[in-house]
Amino acid sequence: MPTTSHQVVNPATEQEVATVQLASVEQTDAAIELSQRAFQQWRNVAPADRGRLLRRFAAAVDGAREELALLEVRNSGHTITNARWEASNVRDVLDYYSAAPERLFGRQIPVAGGVDMTFKEPLGVVAVIVPWNFPMPIAGWGFVPALAAGNTVVLKPAEITPLTAMRLGELALEAGLPADVFTVLPGKGSVVGERFVGHPLVRKICFTGSTEVGTRIMARAAEQVKRVTLELGGKSANIVFADADVEKAAATAPYGVFDNAGQDCCARSRILVQRSVYDRFLELLEPAVAGVKVGSPERDDAEMGPLISAEQRDRVAAYVDDSVDIAFRGNAPDGPGHWYPPTVVLPRSASDAVWREEVFGPVVAVLPFEDEADAIAMANDTEYGLSGSIWTRDVGRALRVARGVEAGNLSVNSHSSVRYSTPFGGFKQSGLGRELGPDALDSFTDLKNVFISTEE
Predict the structure, then answer these.
(1) Helix (H) or strand (E) holding 147
(2) Sign of CA dihedral 194, 197, 201, 206
(3) What pLDDT was estimated at residue 1?
(4) DSSP H/E element including 325
(5) What confidence tens digit (pLDDT) does each residue in 393-429 have?
């Protein structure tokens, strides 16, 4: 018999939080068909009215921010500070894209013999598949621009972290969005996710997760020429040049990789330090790592919580084996919870697994480099290309290296990767397409050309 429910467990306490019913294939099909029917009405809602509904949705999320944040703490083990930011991010994304329906402009193109114009038409039913590491914001990055462009959405949260997405679905209805315009379907990837990809009424898939699963989705979507946006793995570099503010670079490095216990595709899990300041950087990094406050995510001063599961903790620990040297560790609580201390390792070569593979936990590897060309070559020596940081006081160097590093989101003297008003996505095997920013709507619309003859 297939599993019909899932027990959500608090990663910090290992206590059950809720039991969630999982959708079957039949329920998934029914939801997609209802979404398709709702699309016929939603696409014809006046742009100003669609924007107004999205603003009401944003207001509902704003009113429930603390509720959503506390739910995420129990759902995913996120620190309360991070969870509050995540709920606010959903609100901000809704506010940002509430202006989009009235600004979904086409063009008039000069031609002979008539008038030519273009329209951006919604696709239909869009399926959003959300990972467990950032359940709220990543959901919003998919469903909000899709709705703004006139599509309807079916969304599958990760099986182990469904609670905040389910609450967002309720808030959408409370805000006045019509039934079946935005539907949240908790379920297994092998059931609901697979059906999203295979169902002919689903016109686009937004998937965030592993590169392995993303490539399978892309292959299956090709059978129906189904559009995809994929945000996949990462192994981002934090490049520290000798002319940088080395003290600041070392003090902030832990927060570029240990945020959300390192369970972040944008984590700067490879630190490249110019050889002349390598030893000094490590001296400064040790107290910074020791100072990371790891503890109960409900505490306002907690900076890092637990890993999502015991399985994930074991997977992370397997990378810290006899093939690497442990430089130093931070602290982590004893007792219940899936805890793992912030850990800095020194690989013996750039071929070590901990240097090349996505650990997805609070482990960072550090190696020296010689010069600018060496730094770029080392940063690019990976199948991934999602994010990264460059630390230097030389603006020319910052631009040269930023142009040379093969990654979609780079920060200079910063670890910021995501702003709702700018594009987000990866190079190489880190993904396909862009989320957020003014261009995201293009991936949720088809461009239609219309010619009107004016000849008598």
Answers:
(1) helix 135-148
(2) positive
(3) 44
(4) strand 324-329
(5) 999 999 999 999 999 999 999 999 999 999 999 999 9
Lookup: tokens for 450: 């219309």
- Which residues, 6+ apart, have CB-to-CB distance to 155 below 8 Å? 127, 128, 129, 130, 139, 142, 143, 165, 169, 182, 183, 184, 185
Mean pLDDT computed over 4-21: 97
DSSP state of 444: G
Coil, helix or strand at residue 175: coil
pLDDT at 2: 57
> What is the model's pTM?
0.97
Q: Is 372 a catalytic residue?
A: no
The DSSP output letter for 454 is -
Q: Which two structure tokens, joined as six digits, stand for 401?
A: 């290296």
The tens digit of pLDDT for each residue in 180-201 reads 999 999 999 999 999 999 999 9
Instruction: Count other Cβ atoms within 10 Å, centred on residue 56.
Output: 18
Tokens of 414: 């910063």
Angle at CA of residue 233, ends 318 and 89, nearest 5°: 115
Of 159, 206, 265, 266, catalytic: 265
Q: d(Cα 220, Cα 216) in Å, to the nearest integer? A: 6
Angle between helices 80-97 and 135-148 (to 10 degrees): 0
Spatial distance between the Cα atoms of 236 and 158, rounded to a whole number of angstroms: 24
User: Pick the catalytic residue: 72, 86, 159, 231?
Assistant: 231
Tell me, yes or no, if 266 is annotated catalytic: no
**Do 184 and 155 touch, CB atoms closer than 8 A?**
yes
